[in-house]
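Course assignment 3, question 2. Fill in each field.
Student: A.L.
Task: Predict the tertiary structure for the chain below.
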Amino acid sequence: MRVLHMSTKSGAMVAALAVAVTLTGCGETKTANGGGAAVEDYMNGSATDDYNTGPMAEYFGFGDSDQMSAQLREQTKRQQAAMVECMRAEGFEYIAFDSMGDMGADDFDPYGGMTRKEYTAKWGWGVSTTIDADGQPIDDAPGYGSTEDLPEDPNQKIRDALSPEDQLAYDKAMFGDMADPTTMMSDDGSGSTGSVDGSSDSDSDLDSDLDSGEPDSEGSDEGEGFQPDFSQMGCSGRTMTDSLGMDQTDMEAMTDAEEEMTQRVDADKRVKAAAADYRACMKAAGYPNLTEPGDAQSSIEDRMNEMWEADSGDFDGSDSGSGSTSDIDSGDTEGGDGGSVESAGLDAAKLKKLQRDEIELAVAELPCDAEYQVATQKVRFEEEQRFIDENPELVARMKKSFGG
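Answer field:
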């Protein structure tokens, strides 16, 4: 059964790595440049190179994992101290603890040290392939196992000892707007939730979707240009901003700048030519309807979403009675109105079929995507350097927030 719950993760670590992804183009910055050999190099490289190469990554020091880990550990320590004061002001006890344990930045490698080609051959994009029919991570799935060694959060016992009503108040103090279970679900209904220490954790005709290569008509811009408002996320969000030394206005400015940078990259004639080559490559691979980079993965995500919806019901609040955040956190299956946040389990046969389809499509798409990314890297790096040159004060403040 897939029970949605708040797990114990390092809030500062997750938030800072999320910012790192934003600053370096959310996967747009690539590592190779040139012809066929460069494409092969790209496929045999690590996907984590996306976050530590290029002008922005070099400027912010994201390539030095030891330095990042030390900075994040100090930020986590500051956040925990601030959490004690913030929750006390809200009327609740909170115990500061080392939520990172022995973890470093390398422990958050979602690709498990594999090359793109290796990861794609085994896991596709990791959309459906890393979970079982109960909605739980597969034992050896990259990006999951390392968090099991994190220390136990002593604040869970404090929360568990509260009455249901006080648990709701505790959640509101801790998470702010995120305490509403209808806002804690990710768009795919897979139950992306917060944790007690202030971190964040991510039937149609299945055959016809892959055969036609037709993505959902709505598309998927999940995460694109999105910058959370930490000030609305209770003590966890407010202390996150303080501990990272980030100003919300600066964060929004960086997000806006990233959108503008991406638009300039997409408008460049070299990138448009690369996009045309991508379409031709996908057509030759047998997927003429997947015309844009990202469409292939989105088509699998759409199908996975449909499976979650069939399994878990409506998470947009329209069905009501879906249980409170206390139900989600504790793993209780009965909601306050008699509803349930425990799933009935995914259809095992359909999940297995989707997993096979995901790997097949991802393997077919990888050379096309690699060719596109290699061709667009130079443009992306040019725009990153331009941004640094045109916004020296802003990037200096952001670098300082990372301890640089």
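Instructor remarks: The chain is about 55% helix and 0% strand. The chain has one domain: 11-401.
Grade: pending
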